[in-house]
User: Fold this.
Amino acid sequence: MRELELLSHIYRSNPTLPVGVTIPPGDDMGAVTLGGASVLVTVDQVADGVHVDLASTPIEKVGRKAITRNLSDVAAMAAKPVGAVAAACLPKGFGQDMAKALFDAMHASAESFNCPLIGGDISMWDQRLILTVTIFAEPDGIDPVLRSGAQVGDVIYVTGQLGGSIITLDDPPGYTHHLDFTPRIDLARKLAADPTTRPRAMIDLSDGLGLDLPRICEQSGVCAQLDTDRLPISPAAHLAAQRSGQPAWQHALGDGEDYELCFTAPPGTLPDEVEGVPITEVGRIVAQRPGSRMTVHLPDGTLADTAGLGWEHLG
Assistant:
């Protein structure tokens, strides 16, 4: 079973959920009502050999990513993190010093985003490292931004630059985006708090714009139209293109693990930069088309083939 098929099966359970579930499966975070307050929840994993390569990655960066990739989901909802719990399956022979360094990095990363690591579980096994982190968040005066609000005529925006997330750069030295990125929490909350800039729909770009943007379209019942010559392609994506022989726009759409935000908003409402982060217009939301959630237009006006772009777990 493909990941998207399994997710669709899960989403079909939404009508049977209790009324206390205010944001069901289908967004970057779910939400429940507890004691009259809304609590948002997200959970994610870092698995050695899938999301990181423990043999070549400093353990401090592994621990940091376990926290920050969840915080990117928090940013996508314009929420405020309040705490985290973690579960770790450590390989036998991992070593006490390595384990301490890992958990120290997770603790420090969580604290730096005012999201204290307050508990969890540890086990040992014969397989590779798996870290699972659950983060709790609150709206704190800002209504969460869902994936389902995009409207025809909206502009599609992305933060930062896209593609080449696994490429290590010399400038800045040793920077590898999928390990060193900063979750866009402050930016998202600033946009969402202002009625003139509030996104109508938003998503975290973890699987690549080519897969994640159609998820907004699916939830909103619309279609996206992208222009490749507008994409903010990262220097790392250009390096990746030189190595692969593929166009750089393909890397920008499909490499995944950008941990940037994609959102839609009415035309003319967004600045070019917020919190020092560039915001780029990459396309428009158009009316739903049968069998299509996204079209990608090349500079010569032809449609690009986007089959296979983006990261998807396969069964």
